[in-house]
Design goal:
Elements lengths: L1 E5 L7 H12 L3 E3 L12 H11 L1 H12 L8 E5 L1 H12 L5 E5 L15 E8 L6 H14 L2 E8 L15 H17 L1
Parallel strand pairs: 1-2, 1-3, 3-4, 4-5, 5-6
């Protein structure tokens, strides 16, 4: 499977490269565009400030330009937190998208969004301050209305970025369960 993996608000850190390696070891082709142009953040607040400095439109443009050379192959879009928001936006706009794999985040869905049974899998902490129960319920219904085939997996007690071993949110057990389910999802596509 060809996967476009977008990083979190921390930037293209070693943990993102480790995630890409894990996917490659499972037989997938993976690209990890650097939406922050080599910059990384030491905290969520720094990452949000960096995102705001660059601007959401500029980040999205960088993502589109990174994915464009490969989109004819039928990409699986994948993202981590902020990157999940980017991945979701691209997948919903790419009629050739093969799937959408989201870790730790979602995004608004345009009213006009329409896909043809796009396989979508979301993995989030429970509770998650950025992905509340009410938000996820509404998100799920909007994705289904857009035509996506959605699965949501919640991990009780895990921190927001629980798959990132570099952060205090890391939860080894939840991360391993997430990766097992996610790799099975990719194999099914």
């Amino acid at each position: 499977m060809d996967i476009m993996l977008f990083h979190s608000a921390y930037g293209l850190t070693p943990s993102v490269e480790a995630a890409a390696r894990r996917l490659r070891d499972a037989g997938h082709q993976v690209w990890t565009p650097d939406l922050f142009d080599g910059r990384t953040a030491g905290s969520v607040e720094e990452g949000v400030a960096l995102r705001d400095e660059i601007g959401k439109d500029a980040l999205l443009k960088r993502a589109v330009l990174a994915a464009a050379p490969y989109s004819e192959r039928g990409l699986v879009y994948m993202g981590l937190s902020l990157g999940a928001s980017v991945a979701q936006t691209l997948a919903l706009g790419d009629e050739r998208a093969r799937g959408l794999l989201l870790f730790h985040g979602t995004s608004d869905i345009a009213e006009s969004a329409s896909v043809d049974d796009l396989p979508v899998q979301l993995h989030v902490a429970e509770p998650d301050p950025f992905e509340t129960d009410d938000w996820l319920s509404a998100w799920y219904l909007q994705m289904r209305r857009a035509g996506a085939d959605v699965e949501i997996y919640r991990y009780r007690g895990a921190g927001h970025l629980y798959t990132d071993p570099e952060l205090s949110d890391f939860d080894a057990e939840a991360a391993e369960r997430t990766w097992a389910v996610a790799l099975s999802f990719l194999d099914s596509l």
